[in-house]
Amino acid sequence: MIEIQGHRGVLATRHGNTLASFVEALRLGVDAIEVDVWLTSDMQLVLRHDAVIGSSDIRLETMLQAVVEKHPATVTDVDPETRAPSLSETVALLRFANATGIVLDIEVKTDGADWDLYGHRIVTELSKVLKAHQDEQALRVRSFDPQIIRAMSGMLPGVPLVALSRESPVRSVGLYPSAAKELVTAALATGASAVAPAFGTLDAGLVAEAHSAGLKVFPWTLETGDEIRAAVRLGVDGVCVNDVALAREVLAALGEPLAAAHVMALPLLQRSPA
Questions:
Q1: 73 CB burial (10 A radius; 0-12, 13-18, 19+)
Q2: Staple partner for 45: which of 87, 156, 230, 250, CB 3.0–4.6 Å?
Q3: Cβ neighbours, 10 Å, residue 254
Q4: Which PROSITE patterns has this protein been placed in (predicted)?
């Protein structure tokens, strides 16, 4: 079964990292929802892709000051939210939707620099939250920063970890390498159980190298049907996509089983039978 990972929910039709986007992902049917997390000045884990919007840095703001990031590629501006949701609110949403089996795939965001106080703080706070929920919610943590994955491996050994990679003109202690052998070696050394290469770096050699080492392969971000089909042909274990409906359509045509939908409804607002 090819895992469908909704990138920030359903980025094709909703603003990413919003509760509305997560509800839409559940409605369509996903195996995992990928989110991005930062730590605010009041030590709250808040979901947003970019740390800085305009002149405001989420790391220097409180949770209530963290605005939603509006994505220009979003085709419908529906269900606007006034602030970015917290990780705890998202866990509560999944519980309410009876979707605790859907993997909440949390990308820990950093600047990719040397290990610092911020890195220590976000790993510490994230570990506290995940320890409280790991027996009731499917969880996974990913990062481009091997320092984060290594630290999470030591603090929360029961949660699967993913080594994210992308092409970079410079090597950094805070970035996984993109070359297949180096990426696999670094992933294993930091305790990861999967690699997530950028689609542009994905090839048969990387998939074979990872699988031979016992690592799963989750490329990101696949935007077209052709990209999804190409990844499936290479034997990947999952696809991180902006358009969940498209991914379901492509995988269904390939004969792949699909995740069930989780349509949310408020029972008290439903009409009783006449």
A1: exposed
A2: 87
A3: 12
A4: GP_PDE, PIPLC_X_DOMAIN
d(CA 14, CA 71): 8
Contact of 153 with 186, CB cutoff 8 Å: no
User: What residues contact residue 126 under an 8 Å CB cut-off, 6+ apart?
Assistant: 37, 45, 87, 106, 108, 141, 152
Amino acid identity at 107: E
CA distances to 18, 84, 162, 186, 247 from 251, rounded to whole Å, are: 26, 31, 23, 31, 6
pLDDT string in tens for the chain (274-residue length)? 999 999 999 999 899 999 999 999 999 999 999 999 999 999 999 999 999 999 999 999 999 999 998 876 665 555 568 899 999 999 999 999 999 999 999 999 998 778 889 999 999 999 999 999 999 999 999 999 999 999 999 999 999 999 999 998 778 899 999 999 999 999 999 999 999 999 999 999 999 999 999 999 999 999 999 999 999 999 999 999 999 999 999 999 999 999 999 988 655 444 455 5
Residue type, 167: E
Interacting residues of 31 by C-beta distance below 8 A, sequence separation 6+: 1, 3, 4, 5, 102, 103, 238, 259
The stretches of 215-268 forming alpha helices (DSSP H) are 225-234, 244-253
Sort residue 246 into left (φ over 0), alpha (ψ -120 to 50) or beta.
alpha
Prediction pTM value: 0.94
Alpha helices in 45-158 (DSSP H): 87-96, 117-133, 146-155
Provide the total of helices (H) and of strands (E) in the chain, helices listed first.
8, 11
Dihedrals phi, psi of 86, to nearest 5 degrees: -90, 165
